[in-house]
Design a protein that fits this description.
The chain contains ten helices and no strands. By secondary structure, it is an all-alpha fold.
Amino acid sequence: MKKPSLAFYSSSIFFIVWEVFARYLNLKFVLPWPTAVLKRMWELRVPLFKYHMFATLKIAGVSIVLSFALGIFLAVIMDRSKKVEEAIYPIIVTTQTIPTPAIAPIFILWFGYSIWSKVLVAVLIAFFPVTINLHDGLKSTKKDYIELFKSMHAREWDIFWKLKVPSTIPYFFSSLKMAIPLVLIGAAIGEWLGATAGLGYFSKRMMTQLDGAGVFAPIVLISIIAVSFVNLISYLEKKFLKWRGN
């Protein structure tokens, strides 16, 4: 029988401490205990799982695709041209200094309560680590290998596809594991600031009703979704990159 992992023990300790401390404070609206949150999540399962969860997943799905499309494009053009890298790298970094709660209302003014205002918030948060990670992956290709390819009269296109892209695959999986929680957070922030559906919107609605456990229920659900997807990506990474070892 397989022994429980260290993550299982650490998570168990965390939730036990949370349960004991929250019950000691006895301020359910401020800090509800985990069992109360799970109970409330079960009571709200119909709107949470049948409606609001899928609204958030839809935003996150579109956002992850756009984040990687933008991240791959920027990483490739920076790798191909040093001047382009010097020109746009500071701009990419600057985008991360913009407070998301400050820029999100502007997106809502542009696109209203449609999906795109939330998608832009999520993409703004997630594309940065994707771009930087993939750019580092392309740069990680050993110069000796590049020189070897050139000595064999390989074209730049061949060097890129047969050498640089395979070297970047581990960075791709790392980017994916970082981007998934970020797009979920971005989607929730966008929904919190202006939406008619979604887990962020639902959490805000529960706050107006002074339902502390109801506020935490969508947050816990987002965390469960993020951990599940990250674990799935880690499993696929081990399957596809067996040469790296465990």
